[in-house]
Specification:
Structural class: alpha/beta
Largest sheet: 6 strands, mixed
Bound molecules: adenosine-5'-diphosphate, magnesium ion
Number of helices: 10
Strand content: 25-35%
Helix content: 25-40%
Shape: elongated
Number of strands: 14
CATH superfamily of the largest domain: P-loop containing nucleotide triphosphate hydrolases
Strand order of the largest sheet: 6-7-8-3-9-10
Oligomer: single chain
CATH class of the largest domain: Alpha Beta
Number of domains: 2
CATH architecture of the largest domain: 3-Layer(aba) Sandwich
Length: 335
Amino acid sequence: MSGMDGLALATRGLRKSYGSRRALDGLDLSVPAGVVYGFLGPNGAGKTTTMRVLTGLIHADGGTVELLGRPFKRGDRHRLFEVGALVEAPTFYPYLSARANLRELAASGAPVPSKRIEEVLDLAGLCDRANDKVQGYSMGMKQRLGIAAALLSDPKLLLLDEPANGLDPAGIVAMRDTLKALASQGKTVFVSSHLLAEIQVMADVVGIIAAGKLVREGPLKELLSMQGVVKVRVRPNLVDAAIETLAPLAPAERLTETDRDEGWLAVRLATDRAEEVNQKLAGAGIYASGLESGTDLEMLFLELTGGQGPSGGEGAFVGLGGLNGGAPAGKGTAA
Ligand SMILES: Nc1ncnc2c1ncn2[C@@H]1O[C@H](COP(=O)(O)OP(=O)(O)O)[C@@H](O)[C@H]1O
Ligand SMILES: [Mg+2]
């Protein structure tokens, strides 16, 4: 297929319905090789459905999938030895240890050298507990074992569906480091999450989906360095006056009312210009009762999630003005 060079994974026009419910509605994804790709979308957006199609667990109603440069078709499940996946909650023998479970898996799949088992236990941070029975594992440890299992065949492409679920903050940090290290070795990591903050700290490239469609895709740095957004709240009856007052700061298409009833306006403006917004309004006798700044990406995600902050509700937008400079300190690790 043309235009897909250098992509480890691509979907074009992917469609899938469950009865009358449309889960994927013409999904186009372009995942470059050798990156951590954050597949982000609110709950119900179609992430798991996509993962299930990509791993051959279900068939799409239409569209195409290309894995590692070749079309992936019905009946191609044998090709999945090139792909490691953690999609459904992995099942393990509870009465066996992690190490013994991985040995069982290795025996049932493509042959793996026994030192590989030790490598993946190490990568997943399970060495200390590798001889303990899995039935005593926490959800986070089972999740790590799932990641270890997905890595067993040393796949070029790794598909992980919400792998941070059930991990504690330290576990998420460890996983982020593991995934980044894999990408730096040339592997492609396709990882989903419903939390923007989680994806922001690990992904090189981000794809945002909503209602089974791609909404935004690109390098995280590029998406974050786009114009920031300053949100300001005024008395609802002063919204029009505020828009007029702020007009010199931003052309009309960059100035929107996000919630007239509550008096919220959004100005697409570098976040360090929040002060100017405040000053202008005050100069016109309009006193802001709220002022927040963040990025376009956050605002987009807030809109997609119906105002529910990506890191847990109200105020998620506040104080993230420094996002362009790096990771949001101390935010969003709570899954
Ligand atoms: N087995 C199923 N039967 C019916 N509807 C489903 C099934 N799985 C998912 N859906 C629906 O498809 C949509 C996408 O779901 P899903 O892919 O699980 O989203 P996500 O993983 O992004 O939360 C949702 O509306 C969900 O309710
Ligand atoms: Mg899901």
